[in-house]
Write a structure and sequence with these properties.
This protein is of the alpha+beta class. It has four domains: 8-135 and 371-403, no CATH class; 158-251, no CATH class; 267-367, no CATH class; 405-532, no CATH class. The chain contains 20 helices and six strands. The strands form two sheets. Strands 3-4-6-5 form a four-stranded mixed β-sheet. A two-stranded antiparallel ribbon has the order 1-2. A hairpin with a 2-residue loop joins strand 5 (509-520) and strand 6. Helix 3 crosses helix 4 (83-108), helix 5 (112-122) crosses helix 15 (350-366) and helix 7 runs antiparallel to helix 8. The radius of gyration is 27 Å and the shape is elongated. It starts with 8 loop residues before the first helix and ends in a 14-residue tail after the last strand. Residues 1-6 have low confidence and may be disordered.
Length: 546
Amino acid sequence: MRRHLFRTPENGAVAALVFAGVVARLLRYLACFPLRESESYVAATLVTRSLSELPRPLDYETVCPVGFLWLEGLALRIFGPSEYALRLVPLLFGIGALLVFARATRRTLPGPPGVFAVGMLAVAYQSIRQSAECKHYTADLFFAVLLGALTLGFLEAPRERRRAWRIGLSVCLPAAVVCSLTSGFVVAGVVLAIGWADAFEKRGEAVPSDDRQRRWPRLLPSGGLAALAVGCFAVLWVFQLSAVLQSVHRTGVLTEVWSGVYPPASSPGALLAWLLATHTGRMFAYPFGGNHFGSVATTVLFVLGLAEARRRRRTGLLLLVGAPFLAGLAAAFLHLYPYGDNDRLVVYLAPGICLTAGLGAGTLLTRLTGEAKRRRVLLGVVTALVLAGLAIGVESLWRPSGNLDGEERERRFARGFWPEVGLAGEAAAARDDLHVALDPDRWMFGRTGWAAAFRYHRAVYGPKPWRDADERWGLLTPEHPLRVVAWSPDGDRSPEREQEWLAAIAPRFRLLRRQDLSVNPYSHYLVYELAPVSRPAEPLPAFPPP
C-alpha cells in the first residue's frame, strides 16, 4: 500500500488530509483539557465502580454503552486515573474511524470525490473535539464507519467473493451493538443495502428477468444479519438497557434535556421549518458549519451527491446512506432518541454525510473546464483543509483550558487540596469513602457537573480509597485527626442533618473544626476535622444508616 500511496495526486491529497486529521486529534488529546460537565458524569462513575458494576444505571442519569464503559475501565486500571487514560479509548476510536473511512472512500469514490469526503471528516471540528473527550461518540462514529466500509466492500465485490465481507459484518456487528447504541440506525442501512444487492444485483448488474423469481430466497442472508442485530440488542436490553432506561425515564432528566430536539407536532409548517433548520445546522457541519443555516453549503453538496448517486444507479449506496436518516427520524417522532441540533448525538450520520457531500463536491468540480483548472481548485481546497485541521490542533495547545476556565480552576484547586488535606492527618471523601451522605438530593441533582468533578478529582489526587477494615483507622489520634471532605453546591448545608450525623458519631469521634472552602460559587469543599474519642479509633458508621 505504501508503494502506491502517492501514485496519483489524489492519493497524496488523501494522505495529507489524514495526516492533518491525526495530528489535530493528537494535539487536542495532548492539550489535556479539564473535564467538561458531561465527561465528569462518566468519569465519576468509572473511578468509583468495578468493571462488574458498570452495566448498572450510571450516576447522574447518564446513558453509555457498556462495551465502551468496559474499555474505559480497562484503560483506567492499566494506566491509572487521569484525563489521558480516560480519553485514550475515544482517541483510538477517532483515529481509527478516520483511517478506515479514508481506506474505504479511496476504493468507493476514487479521484476528487474521495478526497473531498476524507477532508470533510478529517478536519471537522466536532470530530477532532470528540476524539479527546471521555464520551462514547467516537465509538458511534467508528462503528458507523466500520459497518459502512464493510458494506461498501460487499457491494463492490463480485458475488463469489462477497462471503468474506458478509462474515466480517457478522463478526463486527455484535461489537458494534455493545459499544455503540446508535449502531442500530446504521444496521438498518446495512441490511437494506445488502438485501438489495442480494436480490436485485448480480456482479454489479441487474438480475436477469428469468432469475428474478428466485430473488426472495436471496434475502435470507440479509435477514439473518438483521436477526443477529435484533438478537444482540435483545441481549443488551436484558443485560443493561432495560434498567438504565427505566432509571432515566423515572427521573425525567433526559426527557427534559432532550425536549427541544424532537420534531414539533404543532403544525406542518413548524415541522417543515424544523426539518430545514435541522438539516442545515450542526448535523451537517462537515467540515465546518453551525446552527442557523450555517451548514447549508454542505447540505447542498449532499443533495447533489444523492442526485449523482441516483444517476449512477448506485442504489446500494443510497440505501446505506439514507436508511439511517429515516430510522433516526422515526425514533425522534416516537421520542425514543434525539435527532439534530446536537451533532454529537447524530454522529452516526457523519460517514454518510461526508461520503455523499464529497460525491457532490466532485460532481461540481467536473463542471469546470480544463484539467489544469480542476487540479488547481483541488489543490487549493486540500491545502486550505490541511491548514485548517492543523490550526485546530495548534489552537488546542495555545489555549490549554479552552473555554473551561471554571473547570480548570476546579482541577488546580483539587490538585493542591487533596495532598495538603492529608498532611498531619488522614483524608477521606464523605460519600465515596465513608458512605456518609449529608445532602443526597443536591449531591445528585444540584450542580451535578461540579459534584461529579469532585468525585473524579478525589480519585486522581486524593488518597487511596478507604476499605471497611482500613489500617488507617488505627493511625488516628487527636494530633493526627480524620478529615472528612464533603461537597456542597453553595456551601450551605442542612443543620439538622449535620447535627444528626455528628450526634450519631459522637461516641466515636468529636468535631475539632469545620471549614468551608469555596472553589467557585457553585462548588464548595466542606472539611470536618474529627478526633477519635478512644484508641484504636472505631470506623465511622454509614449515614444515613442502611
